[in-house]
Write a structure and sequence with these properties.
This protein has helices at 26-36, 53-63, 87-92, 111-120, 137-148, 161-175, 237-244, 252-268, 274-284; strands at 12-18, 41-47, 67-70, 84-85, 97-101, 104-108, 129-133, 153-158, 178-183, 197-200, 225-228, 248-250. By secondary structure, it is α/β, with parallel strands linked by helices. It has a 6-stranded mixed beta sheet with strand order 2-1-3-5-6-4. Strands 9-8-7-10-11-12 form a 6-stranded parallel beta sheet, sandwiched between helices. Helix 1 packs across helix 8, helix 4 packs across helix 8 (252-268) and helix 5 runs parallel beside helix 6. The two termini are 31 Å apart.
């Protein structure tokens, strides 16, 4: 794998499995990195329904793939299909990256560090009092990253309160973090006062009509950061709402690129060309 060329019999395969994946920018991000570093590998997306996940994983094992990313809704279900999962993916309960080590499929989670790295460029994690909206696989990665980084306090908001409570209990047990859970509704969204990090880890802003965010005349602390994991559209309603109130906004493409770069480095052992991957991501999501 020391010179890039058109796919041939020695080309290694990396892929994304999830549903839906049609609009994912991951192939553009990874393929430009393979080409830049002259690695004979190709990245493709495969739409896989839940009842076909086991067959898909066995197929990838059979063809000797280099590695895979796993996205919604399979990040949790894929764990039972792998040969091993690293310690942090086990704790988070979600896998987004699979690597093939001598025929064994090993799962890990690059979402946590992918989420944390853009924050670390702007602030210290132990200075944060955070709200996380959502309690799914992405929210788990965010919560564990914040807990591991010494975040002072975390409030988890979710439509299904039991999922928020379960995640809160896991973070408190693992890190001793002060953490609480509430049902996500218009009233609890006003809890932003007193917190300096608000994370959207839901499809809010990606699916019209899912939930109409309105902060009204909420007062934000100086230096408040609004972080949306949704990367398309690049300027979500969530970020626009907080931007109007003076928050520093982190767009979802930053985490997208960071977690992709970490996956790339696991698969190839080479330093990811993040600047080039960022340009490819922005172009693929229509921001260039």
């Amino acid at each position: 794998m020391n010179s890039w060329k058109l796919p041939d019999s020695s080309t290694k395969l990396c892929c994304l499995i999830g549903y839906p994946v049609k609009q994912s920018p991951s192939p553009a991000i990874h393929n430009v990195a393979f080409q830049h570093l002259k690695i004979n590998a190709i990245y493709m997306s495969f739409a896989v329904l839940g009842n076909e996940l086991a067959k898909a994983v066995e197929g990838l094992r059979a063809i000797g793939l280099l590695g895979a990313n796993v996205t919604m809704p399979h990040k949790e279900a894929v764990i039972r299909l792998l040969d091993d999962v690293d310690v942090w993916a086990k704790k988070i309960g979600a896998v987004n990256t699979v690597t093939n080590k001598d025929g064994k499929l090993i799962g890990c989670n690059t979402d946590a560090d992918g989420f944390a790295n853009p924050l670390k460029r702007r602030t210290k994690l132990d200075k944060l009092d955070a709200i996380i909206i959502g309690a799914g696989g992405a929210a788990k990665a965010c919560a564990f990253a914040l807990g591991r980084g010494g975040c002072r306090e975390i409030l988890i908001l979710n439509r299904t309160i039991s999922r928020a409570q379960s995640l809160a209990a896991a973070i408190k047990k693992e890190f001793g973090t002060k953490v609480s859970a509430k049902e996500l509704n218009q009233k609890t969204l006003q809890s932003v006062a007193g917190h300096n990090l608000i994370v959207n880890a839901t499809p809010l802003g990606m699916h019209e009509g899912w939930f109409k965010m309105s902060l009204g005349k909420a007062k934000l602390n100086k230096g408040t950061i609004a972080y949306d994991l949704v990367y398309r559209p690049i300027e979500t309603d969530f970020l626009q709402e907080f931007g109007k109130l003076g928050a520093t906004c982190i767009k979802g493409y930053e985490m997208l690129v960071e977690q992709a770069a970490l996956s790339f480095e696991i698969w190839t052992g080479k330093k990811a060309p993040k600047a080039i991957m960022t340009e490819a991501a922005l172009s693929a999501i229509g921001a260039r």
